Amino acid sequence: MLAIRTVLHPTDFSESSAAAFRLACALVRDYGAKLVVLHAYPAPVTLDDVAARRLAGEPEKSLTEKLHAIQPNEPGHPVIHRLVEGRPADTILGVALARQREAEALKSGDVAKQRELAELTRQREAAAQKQADLTRQREAEAKVAESRRAELAPLQAESGRKAPEPVKAVEPARPAEPVKLAAVTPAPVPVPTPAPAPDTAPVSIETMLARAIALERDGKTAEAARLLRQATREGKGEAAGQAAKRYGDMLQKGVPGVARDYGEALRYYEIARLNGVEVPVAKSR
């Protein structure tokens, strides 16, 4: 007769999983085996995935409650509930193989093998904890980016206002015609022509961006960064978005005159997206 010591039941909380759970409970009852109820959920890959998870609330807490709600109808059977973050197919297969190796080691009485399996279990738990810490870090970064976006909304509204019209130069007054007295006509007094007013037209955002790119190529990164910040603050549209992206690249890498600041780089990448410029999102390590 086939000896069954452990029954692994992966679940996705669907109706099909509920039917499979009833079969698993029957096997546990007939063979006196342990029941392991497992749910695996994928880890977020991008910042957008992290933001979507934050909007959905606390997934681990809600999933844990749903998982522990799965109980056999007949009390007295040992049940182990496991919630694991990772690719569902790989995670389920890994848990099944680990359970199989543990059973074989216990059956053979191989103490060294049992210690090896215990070490593998410890490593898997450490990797799961590392993944959970990375997820929390991504959620914190997404929260910072959202806060930056809220701070930048007034600046974007202000930058959309119409630029002031340039001041027109005042035309000089024409000299008055000389007054004739008797037969003597005095010579007209020459009126100096005023110098033309300086050109006060504002510099366009496209011009700022072009100057910044030229300065950056010449190695003048500090001056280029100043122009990129000004273009981002005063402009709107694709040119302002390109300026924000280039300054974000500077902050992410760190260049002479610009200290490396990953959080500030995320803020300028978000400005670039708001202005219609696509910014690639870094994949998780």
Main attributes?
3-stranded parallel beta sheet; 285 residues; mainly alpha; elongated
Can you offer a commentary on this structure?
The protein has 285 residues and is mainly alpha-helical. It contains nine helices and three strands. It has helices at 15-31, 47-55, 59-68, 88-108, 111-159, 205-217, 221-234, 238-253, 262-274, and strands spanning 6-10, 34-41, 79-85. Helix 1 (15-31) links the parallel strand 1 (6-10) and strand 2 (34-41). Helix 4 (88-108) packs antiparallel against helix 5, helix 6 (205-217) packs parallel to helix 8 (238-253) and helix 7 packs across helix 8. The two termini are 48 Å apart.
Distance between the termini: 48 Å
Principal-axis shape equals elongated
DSSP strand (E) fraction?
5-15%
The total of beta strands comes to 3
- Tell me the strand order in the biggest sheet: 1-2-3
Q: What percentage of residues falls in helices of 4 or more residues?
A: 55-70%
Q: What's the helix count?
A: 9
Radius of gyration: 36 Å
Overall mean pLDDT score? 80
Order of helices and strands: EHEHHEHHHHHH
